[in-house]
Write a structure and sequence with these properties.
Pfam family, one: META
Strand content: 25-35%
Keywords: Signal
Helix content: 10-25%
Largest sheet: 9 strands, antiparallel
InterPro entries: DUF306_Meta_HslJ, HslJ-like_sf
Strand order of the largest sheet: 1-7-8-9-2-3-4-5-6
Structural class: mainly beta
Protein name: DUF306 domain-containing protein
CATH topology of the largest domain: Lipocalin
Shape: elongated
Length: 278
């Protein structure tokens, strides 16, 4: 009987331990991720990366409430459509775009490769189909609006004469965002706007293709420009310096003239696409 009683006591102890184990507190659950799926109310706006680049444009994505988007990797513009469901699942389309290489980040490509987007109240994170984070951007605020860098004006006539030559290089910057110029041989037209970093970004040139003997037509390769007082430093699509122009005069009706000390900052109000002359 003592043996049977000892076995019974031991069995009771085992049961008690088992019950105690079942009633012990469960380990705390890990904190939930501090983000929510992006939505059709949080996505619209212009989003930029935290890093800066030497590209003509600061890479960005801009979502419109009508379901369209535009963006740039710093050199190549892109556009398409977007839609999003309540779970943050993102569906996009994109049209063709150029493949110019320069310093920047492939935001339009990341957008196309995204399956969803997360928003933590500040940053928008694009997430791929495998769950990997592709890019993180934040919404541009009004204080980050691009402004002219190094000077107070852009609108006006900028000129230069090639050393040892009598051909005048000319660039007329209009306040409606259009440009007329001459590279020493050919007339051309294009558009201009302020890039995110405050430099001037030129659109695609419409130009005659004739050649002039002994003339180096570098001005028609302009992709961007940095302004330094009355000097405009012209840069190629790769960021290399091509040459410089000097501010000659304000346009008729202009309120700004750097030679006279004016401080107004003209902003282009339109950027019509130039028509290529056959």
């Amino acid at each position: 009987m003592p043996t049977i009683r000892m076995i019974a006591v031991a069995a009771a102890g085992i049961v008690a331990l088992a019950l105690a184990g079942c009633s012990s507190a469960a380990p705390p659950a890990p904190d939930a991720p501090q983000y929510t799926p992006a939505s059709t109310s949080t996505l619209p706006g212009t989003w930029i990366v935290a890093d800066t680049y030497s590209s003509p444009d600061q890479p960005f994505l801009a979502f419109e409430r009508d379901g369209t988007w535009t963006g740039s990797d710093g050199c190549n513009d892109a556009a398409g459509t977007w839609s999003m469901d309540t779970a943050g699942v993102l569906t996009t389309t994109s049209g063709p775009q150029t493949q110019i290489y320069c310093d920047g980040t492939h935001l339009p490509l990341f957008l196309i490769d995204s399956a969803s987007a997360r928003f933590d109240g500040t940053d928008l994170t694009l997430v791929g189909h495998d769950g990997d984070e592709l890019a993180k951007v934040h919404k541009r605020v009004m204080t980050e609006k691009a402004v002219a860098r190094g000077t107070s004006v852009v609108v006006g006539l900028w000129t230069n004469v090639e050393p040892g030559r009598d051909r005048l290089l000319r660039l007329t910057m209009n306040d409606d965002g259009t440009v007329e110029g001459n590279d020493g041989c050919n007339n051309f037209t294009t558009t201009w706007r302020f890039a995110e970093d405050g430099s001037v970004s030129f659109g695609k040139l419409a130009i005659l293709g004739r050649s002039c003997e002994g003339v180096v037509t570098w001005l028609n390769l302009a992709s961007s420009a940095v302004l330094d007082g009355t000097t405009m430093v012209i840069r190629s699509m790769y960021g290399a310096q091509l040459g410089t122009l000097t501010y000659l005069q304000a346009l008729p009706g202009s309120t700004a003239d750097p030679l006279g000390g004016a401080t107004a900052t003209p902003v282009p109000t339109a950027a019509p696409t130039p028509t290529t002359t056959p």
